[in-house]
C-alpha cells in the first residue's frame, strides 16, 4: 500500500482507538511529510530502514539545528507509526527500536518571578485598549494563564459550562493526552472572569465558547492571544509566551507552599516526575530545605 495512504489509516486508528488529540495527529502527518520530503523515492513502508531514519535525524541535527527534544519527538512520531505497522503485519519489525534516544538536557524551566508576573498583570490592566470588551477579555485571558497554568489550546477551547464561578472551579476537557482535569479558581481570577462575563453579556454573546471574538458571536480566533502578548511585551519589556506562563504558575505555586501532588493534578501531568522539574526552579523551596541541615554551630 502507498505509504501516505497507510499513514492516513494509522492516523485514523490513533484518533479513534488511541484517543490521540487532533493536534497530535497533525504532528504525525507533518513528521511523515518531512521524512518523505527528505526521501522522495520512498513509496512503501518496507523501504523505511533504520539507516534512513538515522540519516534523516543526523541531517536535522547538523543542517537544521534540531534540539534533543525535537529529535526525540520526531523519533516518537515515526516509531508510533512503525509500531502500528508491525501490529497490523505490514512489516516485521520497527526500525526505530534500535535507534538510541537522545539524552535530554535537564534544564531549569524558564519562568517569570513573582514581581514580573505582578507587573505583567498591571500592564494588562492599564494598557490603552480601544474597546472596553478588549480590556476585560485581555485581563481575563492573562489572569487565566497565570492563575491556572492552563495551556494555550486548552484556554481557547474552554466552554461556558467549563467555568463554574459558584463552585470556583475550571474544568479542562480533553486536555493533553485526552485527559480531563479540575482546577480550583483563585479569588482574584474569579473577579477578572466575572468582569469579563458582564461585558460578554452586555454584547449579547451566545457562542458556547467562553472566550469569544470581539466583533462576531463566535469562538475567539488563534491570533488574539498572539496579538495581546505582543502588545503587552512591547509596553512592559517582559518577554513571555503562553507556556512560560504555565511554568510561572507551577513555580510560584511551589514557592507558595503547594504540594507536588496537588500541583501535578492541576497541571494535568500523567507522571508526577514531570512536575518535579519545577522544584529546581524554586529558590524558596531550596532555601527551606537547606535550613533543615542538622549542623548548627
Describe the protein's architecture and organization.
This protein is mainly alpha-helical. It has 2 domains: 3-98, DNA polymerase, domain 1, CATH 1.10.150; 114-285, hpI Integrase, Chain A. Helix content is 56%, strand content 3%. It has helices spanning 3-18, 22-38, 50-64, 68-87, 114-126, 132-148, 152-156, 187-202, 223-236, 242-255, 260-267, 272-275, 283-290; strands spanning 163-164, 169-172, 181-184. It has a 3-stranded antiparallel beta sheet with strand order 1-2-3. A hairpin with a 4-residue loop joins strand 1 and strand 2 (169-172). Helix 3 (50-64) runs antiparallel to helix 4. The radius of gyration is 23 Å and the shape is globular. The N and C termini lie far apart (75 Å).
**Would you list the SSEs in sequence order as H and E?**
HHHHHHHEEEHHHHHH
CATH top level label of the largest domain: Mainly Alpha
Describe the sheet with the most strands. Answer: 3 strands, antiparallel
| Oligomerization status of the protein chains | single chain
> Considering DSSP H and I runs of 4 or more, what fraction of the residues is helical?
55-70%
Count structural domains.
2
Q: What is the CATH architecture annotation of the largest domain?
A: Orthogonal Bundle
Please tell me what the overall shape is: globular
Q: Could you name the CATH homologous superfamily of the largest domain?
A: Intergrase catalytic core
Secondary-structure-based class equals: mainly alpha
From the N-terminal CA to the C-terminal CA, the straight-line distance is: 75 Å
Unreliable stretches covering 5 or more consecutive residues: none
| Cross-sheet strand order for the largest sheet | 1-2-3
Figure out the total of helices.
Answer: 13
CATH topology of the largest domain: hpI Integrase, Chain A
Mean pLDDT: 92
Query: How much strand content do the residues show?
Result: under 5%
Computed CA radius of gyration, to the nearest angstrom: 23 Å
Amino acid at each position: 500500500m502507498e505509504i501516505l495512504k497507510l499513514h492516513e489509516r494509522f492516523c485514523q486508528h490513533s484518533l479513534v482507538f488511541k484517543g490521540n488529540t487532533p493536534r497530535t495527529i497533525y504532528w504525525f502527518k507533518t513528521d511523515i511529510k518531512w521524512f518523505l520530503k527528505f526521501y522522495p523515492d520512498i513509496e512503501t513502508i518496507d523501504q523505511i530502514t533504520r539507516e534512513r531514519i538515522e540519516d534523516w535525524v543526523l541531517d536535522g541535527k547538523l543542517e537544521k539545528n534540531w534540539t534533543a527534544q525535537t529529535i526525540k519527538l520526531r523519533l516518537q512520531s515515526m516509531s508510533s507509526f512503525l509500531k502500528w505497522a508491525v501490529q497490523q503485519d505490514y512489516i516485521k519489525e520497527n526500525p526505530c527500536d534500535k535507534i538510541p534516544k537522545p539524552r535530554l538536557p535537564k534544564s531549569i524551566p524558564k519562568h517569570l518571578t513573582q514581581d514580573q508576573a505582578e507587573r505583567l498583570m498591571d500592564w494588562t490592566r492599564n494598557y490603552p485598549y480601544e474597546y472596553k470588551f478588549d480590556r476585560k477579555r485581555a485581563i481575563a485571558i492573562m489572569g487565566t494563564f497565570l492563575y491556572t497554568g492552563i495551556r494555550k489550546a486548552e484556554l481557547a477551547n474552554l466552554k461556558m459550562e467549563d467555568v463554574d464561578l459558584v463552585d470556583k472551579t475550571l474544568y479542562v476537557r480533553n486536555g493533553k493526552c485526552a485527559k480531563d482535569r479540575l482546577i480550583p479558581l483563585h479569588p482574584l481570577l474569579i473577579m477578572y472572569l466575572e468582569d469579563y462575563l458582564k461585558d460578554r453579556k452586555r454584547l449579547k454573546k451566545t457562542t458556547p465558547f467562553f472566550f469569544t471574538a470581539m466583533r462576531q458571536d463566535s469562538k475567539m480566533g488563534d491570533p488574539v492571544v498572539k496579538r495581546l502578548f505582543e502588545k503587552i511585551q512591547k509596553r512592559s519589556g517582559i518577554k513571555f509566551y503562553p507556556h512560560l506562563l504555565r511554568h510561572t504558575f507551577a513555580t510560584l505555586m511551589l514557592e507558595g507552599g503547594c504540594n507536588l501532588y496537588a500541583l501535578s493534578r492541576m497541571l494535568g501531568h500523567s507522571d508526577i516526575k514531570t512536575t518535579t522539574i519545577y522544584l529546581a526552579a524554586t529558590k524558596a523551596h531550596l532555601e527551606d530545605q537547606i535550613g533543615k541541615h542538622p549542623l548548627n554551630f
